[in-house]
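dumping the sequnces here before i forget
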Amino acid sequence: MKQPPRQRLSFLNLFILLLASVASLATLAGDHSNGRTSEYDEWPRGETRQAFDVQIMPAQSMKDALGYSGEVYLEVVSKFHPEEQFQDAVWSITGESNTGDMISRSANFQEFGGDLFMEDDSPLMGDAIARIGRLCASNEMTDDDCVPCLDGCSLTIKIDRCESSGDDINSSEIRIVGDDGERFTVRCEKDEDLAPCTMLDSWLVAEAESLAMTICPDQGM
Amino acid sequence: MPRPRNVGKIVSKRVQPRAADYLRHPVTLMLLCLWILNDHVLKEMFGNMLTGKISDFSGVAILPLALVGAYECACAALSKSPRFRHEVLITSMLITGLFMVGINLSESLATTFSFGLGVAQWPARAAWHLCTSGSLPQIVSVHHTMDASDLYSLSALVVPFCLGTERPFFLQKRRAGNV
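..and the predicted 3d for all of it:
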């Protein structure tokens, strides 16, 4: 049987092949079919504290788009704490609103909840939850104890577990929730406009960065 | 009068064919451009049923050609004859077809595909994030929805069949038998 002749390499054909491979890999985007007002982040293995650069978009336009007229709150969650130790963990926020108001708060985590579980004789594990505050409404002053983020703000949120968790991977969530304590979500079906999901995703954007100094009160805060 | 150069000489040079030459066929290039434009521009702008189908059709047409192209380029790099190119082409078309059927009809395969492609995309996303923010992103599954109507895109397999064979192999055999 006659064999086909040997062929030579063509750089143009190789380039087109590379382009086709990249197009195959990049053909589908990340799943943004569920727009949500939360950012989940896994920390580097063994890390017990983490900082986040957080950008919050103006709340009123988001509320208008959602048709929501209630209050909105900013919450921070540190995942997988033993029940008896969750109050050891602390959080702090510093930053500035887009209208120039300074923001600075810190406290311990006050609520224990989330997905609770217990393995054999281990303690009850769950999430340490802190409600940082309510986002100010349009007619409120910043001294009303609300977070002046109505027109958007840039924050640095720090979370410190204040205890070693060995070599475990810790994680956290920063979220904007409504009166019912649930984050806002919107579903975009296949081949529909993804803009509502992308818009809701953009309400809260957080980038993790390492936190060198502890913020625990008894460790030199 | 000066004599023109090369007059009276017969210049003969046998040109070796190029590997994966069908990738530069106008139909392939048009489909590839349409695929990239559709995935990164048209879907963002319009995001309707048509943009979904364009992506499936282009992908089904290009993927077998890319697989045979990779085989031919590997043979060329090793200075070997691509003697199994027809078999590789047919196998690539079968794999592509079964893959489309699987991810649109089987929930477990669809989930595996969404996660697998997310994993495959992660190195490029990680490099980008490391350069821009210094942090590593999470692996994010891609957005894939099972849809049996996507199986219409299997008709696009006619494109690699026509471009990947100089002449359909069954015609080649019949003519060879007539000689």
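The two ends of chain B are 52 Å apart (CA to CA).
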